[in-house]
Amino acid sequence: MSSPGDEDLESQQGVQGPRTPLANVWPSFMEAWPPTLHGLSFRSVQIPLAEPDLLALISQTPEARPPLELDGRLTFSGEFRSALATALREFPAGVFLRTGSASFKSDEFLLRPIFKAELALKRLMLPHPRVARLASLCLHHHRPVSLFVREWRDIPPQSEFRLFFYGRRLVAASQYHYRDLFPEIAPAASRLAAALSAASARIAAALPMAQLVVDVAVTPSPASQEVVVIETNPFGAATHAGLFTWSEIGRGDPAFRYLAHSSSGERIESIPL
Fold this sequence. Notes:
39% of the residues are buried. This protein has a 6-stranded mixed β-sheet. A 3-stranded antiparallel β-sheet has the order 1-3-2, covered by helices on one side. The chain has 273 residues and is an alpha+beta fold. The two termini are 27 Å apart. The longest helix is centred in the last third of the chain and has 22 residues, at 185-206. A hairpin with a 2-residue loop joins strand 4 (160-166) and strand 5. The chain folds into 2 domains: 6-151, no CATH class; 157-272, D-amino Acid Aminotransferase, Chain A, domain 1 (2-Layer Sandwich), CATH 3.30.470. It has 8 helices and 9 strands. The chain is globular.
């Protein structure tokens, strides 16, 4: 499972405080999602982190310790370890771990599902600067942080898309990996645009605020194409606009953009949503 979008928040926040007020980005954190939005995403178990476990998570990253006056790595509580083991039993096909604002990225683990609590703890005990920065920020502003134990899904990169909602209306859609040309997208572009458009109403109704950027995966199902929410990001320049520029988004008719072959190499194609 890939986890797009983390670089967006990382670019605008630090341990001491956000360059953009936390209140502006908090609705994009999974902890702020309403139940209806969770229902449109991957199955998961949410484990709220008590302060000792939140500090333990942050302390695994050495550079995050000094601002909180932490002398070294702290240990997770028995209650947390038990909750983690219980959550993993819900997903025999494996899990992907993340907090509501960031995933635990490392070459050792990112592309493989986790099956055992021991391996999950090993994952959490590695340094994760992005996770630590955002967790510290939430702690500073008295916002809750949870660990989300999500079912594992293999998501091909050509199946990931970024949707832009303004006023609870889908105003633009782009392939997520905007630098890469996927030959599978062009012949399916009309079907993809129809699937994204059809899913947009229920996604928009579930959003915690009217303006958000939503990353989704489109996966085949027996009857149609299933659109599953991966994560949400703030609406604005701190979030990458994919194959659009921010000056284009919301102007003109909604469109879906993707890369396609051309005689000169590749070009951006656009079709109506």
